[in-house]
Amino acid sequence: MTSPPGDEVHPSVAAPTSMLGSRSIAPDFARGFMLVLIAVANVPAFLWDRPTGTGAHGTGGSLADRIVQTVGITAVDSRIYPMFAFLFGYGIVQLFSRQRAAGTEPRDARRLLRRRHWWMLAFGFVHAALLWYGDILGGYAIVGLVLVGLFLTRSDRVIAIWAGVLLALSASLAVLPLLGPATPQPGDGSIAAGGLDANAIPGFWAALTERITTWAALVVPGTVLGLIVPIAVLLGMLAARHRVLDAPASHLPLLRRCAVGGIALGWATGLVLALQNLGTLPVSRTADWFFLPLYTLGGLFGGLGYVALFGLIAVRIERARATPGATRGRLQGFADAVQALGKRSLSGYLAQSVVFSPVLAAWGLGWGGYLSDWSGAVFAIAVWAATVALAVHWERLGRRGPAEQLLRRLAYPRPVTGAPASESTP
């Protein structure tokens, strides 16, 4: 493991790219739309003072609540974070490639990535301590530190083999509970958020202690050791080497197969737990624990399917933009707005917690004790829409998001004294 970043100056590292430069549509569009799904996935954990069924979802409720629960368990939960991990791995290779194209030595480019990941870990700790124990930045940063050191400059074959090995291991662990001799017993064995819920604690400092404990003891180890995130990051790194999202029109057959197969598998495995949450399957809730590993594995394929789907959508957007004389309709404007948020995905992700925690948690306004599943989802989508509007404003000003600006100021080395400053915003 490397040591944390220090104050040394590395003038051989290229300056950050400008926000005004050309960027590929697919990665940013996928990141921007991913954030609404993250908001919908996270908001149930902020709805407290109610019985829970599968995950943090409630049980029963109105028809609208049951629809939101079913859609969330089937298509959102455990499907979005593998998508996030894939795009994280894709971005690692993108940044490394840009640095190498600018003349940066491989050693200095790797050092830059390590600094970014150490600072991401610090961001994650602060985020978890102050706002949201489910923070994923810290765990992804650790995965990035490990995989950059092991695989960044290895061959495609090595990366593919190791991704396959980890996938085979994960599949074995997913199927094993279903083949075991144990039989689910009657009773309530539903997958609920166990232990003390930090969002239900009325005191800020007491909640802070519980948030740190949950994040450090459960969330980060689960992210790093759960295999799904490392697999998705490796696949993202491999895809970036072949510019699958940078030039999606050149990979249409692959994207179509991944979109159809991945989403179908992700939704099929998710539907099992969704039906369990509704109480429609003829097995006890104890069986949830037998289905959970397969559900999580299906989430990997579902997340990859979503990435492929956004790649296909990006092709349509690019073709519409390239059509001579074509007018920019509402769909084009929506795509531009989502892409603007995708460029500032770190700020967009953190902004959700800046609103969710003080408004919904018991230590703040406590609205989470009154909202139901459907109203919580509406609230989450509204928060995402507000971040889209803010991102569009920053896009028009040619500014990065505040979190991106801070991370770049911390991660990129200071220019040598007397050297001309970069025109791009660090």
Task: Report the sheet-strand fraction.
Answer: under 5%
Low-pLDDT regions? 1-11, 183-194, 416-426
Any idea what the radius of gyration is? Answer: 22 Å
Name the helicity range. Answer: 55-70%
The helix-and-strand class reads mainly alpha
Q: Report the average pLDDT across residues.
A: 86
Shape: globular
Number of domains: 1
Number of strands: 0
**How many H/I helices?**
14
How far the N terminus sits from the C terminus, by CA atoms, comes to 26 Å
Taking the sheet with the most strands, its summary is: none
Name the helix and strand elements from N-terminus to C-terminus, one letter apiece: HHHHHHHHHHHHHH
Transmembrane segments: 29-48, 80-97, 118-147, 159-179, 214-238, 258-278, 290-315, 349-368, 374-392
Pfam families: DUF418
Keywords: Membrane, Transmembrane, Transmembrane helix
InterPro entries: Bact_Transport_Assoc (IPR052529), DUF418 (IPR007349)
What does this structure look like?
This protein is mainly alpha-helical and about 425 residues long. It has one domain. Helix content is about 65%, strand content about 0%. It contains 14 helices and no strands. It has helices at about 25-40, 65-75, 80-100, 105-130, 135-150, 155-180, 205-225, 230-240, 250-280, 290-320, 330-345, 345-360, 375-395, 400-410. Helix 2 packs across helix 13 (about 375-395) and helix 3 packs parallel to helix 8. The longest helix has about 35 residues, at about 290-320. The radius of gyration is 22 Å and the shape is globular.
